[in-house]
């Protein structure tokens, strides 16, 4: 049974940093595509960053240069390091996994497994 559990969210002032973690179990992390999505109130869930099994990375334009996605296969954990945070980064952040996303990486509908989310709030 695949499980994804996010942690590391919190409240921070603009310009600050947070590191999110996603602990995975029930599958071989090294063989799966993994990603971070976020969803603000009243908005659709959007792809933030994704990581292929070969460690190639994808980023949304809005976070390029500020966020870094990485994983530790030995710990079965996915990370999202978020620097220079802005109020518009405020959202619930979700971890996702799939053997191969069935649609473009930014389309939430193409991912198979999801965590419960962790809240990130950035104040100005």
Q: Could you characterize what this model shows?
A:
β4 and β5 form a beta hairpin. Strands 2, 4, 5, 6, 9, 10 and 11 form a 7-stranded mixed sheet that branches. Strands 1-3-8-7 form a 4-stranded antiparallel sheet, with no helix packed on it. The N and C termini lie far apart (41 Å). It is mainly β. The chain has no helices and 11 strands. The mean pLDDT is 96.
Helix percent reads: under 10%
Cα gyration radius (Å): 13 Å
Backbone structural class: mainly beta
Mean pLDDT: 96
Termini, distance in Å? 41 Å
Largest sheet descriptor: 7 strands, mixed
Question: What proportion of the residues form beta strands (DSSP E)?
Answer: over 45%
Counted beta strands: 11
Q: What spatial form do the alpha-carbon principal axes imply?
A: globular
Encode the helix/strand succession as letters: EEEEEEEEEEE
Pick out the low-confidence regions. none
Number of helices: 0
Task: List the topology elements.
Elements: E1 3-7, E2 10-13, E3 18-25, E4 33-39, E5 46-51, E6 57-59, E7 67-72, E8 77-82, E9 91-98, E10 113-114, E11 118-123
Parallel strand pairs: 2-11
Antiparallel strand pairs: 1-3, 3-8, 4-5, 4-9, 5-6, 7-8, 9-10, 9-11
């Amino acid at each position: 049974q695949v499980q994804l559990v996010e942690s590391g969210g919190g409240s921070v002032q603009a310009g600050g940093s947070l590191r999110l973690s996603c602990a995975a179990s029930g599958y071989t992390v090294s063989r799966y595509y993994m990603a971070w999505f976020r969803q603000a109130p009243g908005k659709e869930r959007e792809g933030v960053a994704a990581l292929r099994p070969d460690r190639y990375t994808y980023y949304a334009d809005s976070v390029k240069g500020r966020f870094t996605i990485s994983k530790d296969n030995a710990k079965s954990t996915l990370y999202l390091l978020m620097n220079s945070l802005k109020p518009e980064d405020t959202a619930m952040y979700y971890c996702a996994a799939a053997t191969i996303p069935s649609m473009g990486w930014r389309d939430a509908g193409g991912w198979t497994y999801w965590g419960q989310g962790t809240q990130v709030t950035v104040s100005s």
